[in-house]
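For the sake of clarity, the format in which proteins appear in this thesis is described at this point. The record quoted next illustrates the convention:

___
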Amino acid sequence: MQCFVKMLVLAAGPVLAGPVLAENAVGENGFTISNSVEVSAEPAAVWALPTKPQEYWNPDHGYSGDAANFSMTLEPGGCFCERLGPDGFVEHMRVVMVVPNQMLRLSGALGPLQSEGLAGHLTWTLKPREGGGTIIEQSYVAGGHMKFPLDMIAPAVDGVLGEQLTRLAVRVDAGE
């Protein structure tokens, strides 16, 4: 429970300013979080970054406190993982679909949701923007049973994921 409270406090903290647009829904047995942002780079230039969480994921929303410990393996069943010392690790999510330059889908329950009876899917979609650039859409759908109130946890998860999307967008635009 202490980890859950820490994650909520961190999620409620300052988030980088950015053009993130959110659409969220909370139901009786789950929630959906949808965020999008526009960047000036083309989809092919954007593609590699969502697959490299060590380059944009805020380490405050991990277990090791070091972004260098994050990794993602792009293969069927590949791991979005974090190293915890020489012998420890956490599997945040599993890679379930890759369409290069277009879509990345991961399956798993993030952070404090991992110990609950939930299934979750995070999808990153890259769409060419008219006139150039890319619309990056991020969607996380989670459902099942959990001991935390959904109307309390969904905004916290949205805060964490929205921050990661903003950090990614800033990194993409800085790389041009």
